[in-house]
Amino acid sequence: MNGGITVQRMCKMPGIPSSARLVRFAQAALAGHLPAARMTVRVVDEAEGSMLNARYRLRDPSIDRATNVLAFPFDPPPGVAPASAGDREIGDVVVCAPVIAREAKSQSKPLEAHWALMVVHGTLHLLGYDHDKPDDAAVMEGVERDLMAALGYPDPYEADEAEEKGVRQDTGFSTPPLLPPRPSSTIG
């Protein structure tokens, strides 16, 4: 455990960032919201990722494959008061190492940058962000861009947007205006 973030490494393969780096990625997402929150980042293989995806992903439980990241928000049981806003368990982020490695390669993205994005993305889900609706997706992507830039990584969506417009560009850093932190009253 490192501060309020526990890292569980259930998969060993080259390219997985150190536990300290994984903690740094999660801390970046927590900083503007619940910096003292407790959470777990669990690195898994495809077998565990596939099992978790099939068992818990409510959108399509028939999906029998691993996905890049899953977020499991923690809500206290009925009748149990949540811990103080700054010091509470918010849940688990599960990242599937082989899927992240394949995606980074197929999308021509630096592997560590893709790891950072997946941990940030999962942590934002624990904080109440979502991307089911276009407006919500735009907000979440904006926050991800800001956090990736703050971590020193290129804009993870720039190449995708250029491709959609039919333009090939090198990825670089994006400096969109900072979005205000999401109020803690919407977290959970």
Number of domains: 1
Q: Can you count the helices?
A: 6
Which segments are poorly predicted (pLDDT under 50) over 5 or more consecutive residues?
Answer: 167-188
CATH class: Alpha Beta
Determine the strand fraction and express it as a percent band: 5-15%
Would you write up a description of this structure?
This protein is α/β, with parallel strands linked by helices and 188 residues long. The protein has a single domain (5-186), classed as Collagenase (Catalytic Domain). 39% of the residues lie in helices and 13% in strands. It has helices at 19-30, 46-56, 97-106, 111-126, 134-151, 158-164; strands spanning 5-9, 38-44, 69-73, 89-96. It has a four-stranded mixed sheet. α1 crosses α4 (111-126). Residues 167-188 have low confidence and may be disordered.
Give the helices and strands, then pairings.
Layout: E1 5-9, H1 19-30, E2 38-44, H2 46-56, E3 69-73, E4 89-96, H3 97-106, H4 111-126, H5 134-151, H6 158-164
Parallel strand pairs: 1-2, 2-4
Antiparallel strand pairs: 3-4
